[in-house]
Amino acid sequence: MNDVREVICRPRRRLPWWFLVGLGAAGASLAAVRGAYRGTFLDAWLSIGVLLALLGVLALGMVTTRVSADAYGVHSRTLLRRRSVPWGDITGLRILLKHESSHRIPEVRRVGLVLRNGRRRLLPLPQCGLPDDRAEFDAKVDALHALHVRHGAPDSSHIPVISRRTAGRSVSWALILCALLLAGAGAAAWAVPDSTSYARAWQSAVPCAAGAGAGTGTTERRDCLTTVPAVIAKAAVRRPKQSSWLYFADGRPLERLAVSREGAQGFGPGDSVEVTFWRDRVMKVAGAHHVWREHVSAAGEMAVLAAALALTAGYPAARVLLRLRGRRLPDDEVLPSALPFVGVLVGTALWLLPLCYRHPTDPFTSPATIAWAAAGSAATLGLSVLAWRATRVRTPRAAESTGKPGKAGAADEVFVAARFLEQTDYNPHFFGTHIVLGDGPPAVTPHSGPGRFAAKPIPVERLTVKGVRRLRGSDGDTVPGGWHIAELDDAGSPVRLAAAPADLTRIIRELRPAAG
């Protein structure tokens, strides 16, 4: 790649995009002809033509995208904009890994530029979505890096891979989600007093005096209860997540009423019922064998909703906290998992939600509730300390000092969860999940023991330990976030070994004496 003079990136499989461009042109022609003929924009064929035209514009933007690099810098061209960045303004390249939910396209790789002013710029090309495109994508990235080394001054020869678990990933989505959840929690908490007064007013409502007309067609708001006789004409039972309906004969006292599915199942055509109105709302429909009541949200339910939303906001807040905690890490190093803080949130919910439900407005008026809240807060504080310690950034040097020493040739076999990230003769088709140590030479096994069934001996005489580092985005998402990586040299070929810090230290101590 040292003799690369120019790199040109265009979209692959351009024929489908050109087909969509032609389809969009046909749609634009259809919209123009239909609009001129009909003289109106309220037409189905005109709408179809406009949609096809918009689709054609998007396809034209995709097919005309072009990124090139030469001795002067990187040049990008889209349908609406052209940009050029000289190599002197670029400090490095990086690969952004976006995970998709599709099984056909599990991940999408794109290239970004890191500028000297601290900004990041994402290039429209090259892109890699399908496994067949990976080789061409890697070749384009290597060519861009070679041009950068020749004509620029990169800060490092390493190209970081930024994934959803790495320190360089943006947490703006987490901040937005946290703010929205906290806003919802505040709105629910604000509605607690109103829910309390509404529920108390409904519970204390009494029948109206004789002659009151609430529920009989008047719009006057009544705080008393009015009961009107009616006959069910039809009960429409819908699916569980849809509203069911009760239809009344002759449209009296109303045409229809939305009820729950269970409420509609309790009534049939011709049933005589009594409809109870309160504040111009139907609150109860009582028949001979079934009674339906309108659900009134109690203050406890609103308080529980507010607390649940606030606790849910704790997860994106924990992601932001971990990002701030690891701000000094390289962009491609994997951050610790936020799952320990999920345990804190679940433990808090076990005591906070019952307290909010039973005492929504006055949680600190009795010694029992104060003791309840104090004990729960102490438990939450203890769990938070444990989660903080569990998510600390452990460097490989600290891991080596805390590793348990192993003895080469011990009588008992020990199966350690570890895996080689490259396909080798002792790890064919990435089959290894554990490494067995102890009685006999170290070997890779596809199981956790006992026994050495299907074990592949590790050629320790060929291996040389180059170093130990933390997990990076380029190591993939199949490796747990708390593991470390040992970089080995296998007779000139680089090999990576992943394991938990203490286990990795033990494996290295077993390999070194054997290799020596």
- Spatial ordering of strands, largest sheet: 18-17-16-15-21-20-19
Low-confidence stretches: 213-221, 398-411
Using the CA coordinates, give the radius of gyration.
34 Å
- Write the CATH architecture name of the domain at 7-159: Roll
Give the proportion of residues in helices. Answer: 25-40%
CATH fold naming of the domain at 7-159 = PH-domain like
How much of the sequence lies in strands comes to 15-25%
Distance between the termini: 37 Å
Number of strands: 21
**Class of the domain at 7-159, according to the CATH hierarchy?**
Mainly Beta
Supply the number of helical segments. 12
Shape: extended
What does the main sheet amount to?
A: 7 strands, antiparallel
- Output mean pLDDT: 83
- By helix and strand content, what is the structural category? alpha+beta
Features:
516 residues; alpha+beta; PH-domain like; OB fold (Dihydrolipoamide Acetyltransferase, E2P); 7-stranded antiparallel β-sheet; 6-stranded antiparallel β-sheet; 12 helices; 37% helix; 23% strand; extended
